[in-house]
Amino acid sequence: MAYFKINNKDFSSLVSGMKVGYETLVSDKSGRNAAGNTVIDVINRKVKVYITFRHMTQEEMKELLDAVKPYTVQVTFQNPETNGLSTIKTYTGTPEPEYYTISNSVLYKPMTLNFIEL
Q1: What is the per-residue pLDDT across 39-54, written as a single tens digit (0 to 9) for each?
Q2: In which region does residue 91 sit, left (phi positive, over 0), alpha (psi from -120 to 50) or beta (all else)?
Q3: pTM to 2 decimal places
Q4: What region, left, alpha or beta, does residue 34 occupy, with left being phi > 0 and alpha being psi -120 to 50 degrees?
């Protein structure tokens, strides 16, 4: 089952973990009023998808880095709120591949990358 895609390309086989966060954005006018009551002005709600990728080969890492290179990408993910797939436009965190070498073949250590809804 495809549960994680970047720009409609399936990367589910590279995923070892996924966490979904729901951030509520409030205006700078939110806070306490003169009576001491909390007043909140909700502006919007955004989704953050935290993906942990498993060990990867050079080819797999290149494919992933090429996919996130545009910085803003469309992401499809398994959304626990809807119990189905959701697609959102996102920007990405900074990819930080770390080498993990065994013998003559180069592998990369697991890496976490965030996708934040625009």
Answers
A1: 888 889 999 999 999 9
A2: beta
A3: 0.86
A4: alpha
Report DSSP letters for 35-52, one per residue.
TS-EE--EEEEEEEEEEE
| 10 sits in which H/E element | strand 9-10
Domain positions in the chain are 4-117
70-74 CB contacts, 8 Å cutoff, 24+ apart: 72/118, 73/6, 73/7, 73/115, 74/6, 74/7, 74/8
Q: Which CATH number fits domain 4-117: 1.20.1280, 2.40.30, 3.20.20, 1.10.3470?
A: 2.40.30
> Are the C-beta atoms of 76 and 4 separated by less than 8 Å?
yes
Q: Are 42 and 26 in contact (CB under 8 A)?
A: yes
The 10s digit of each residue's pLDDT in 69-107 is: 999 999 999 999 999 999 999 999 999 999 987 778 889
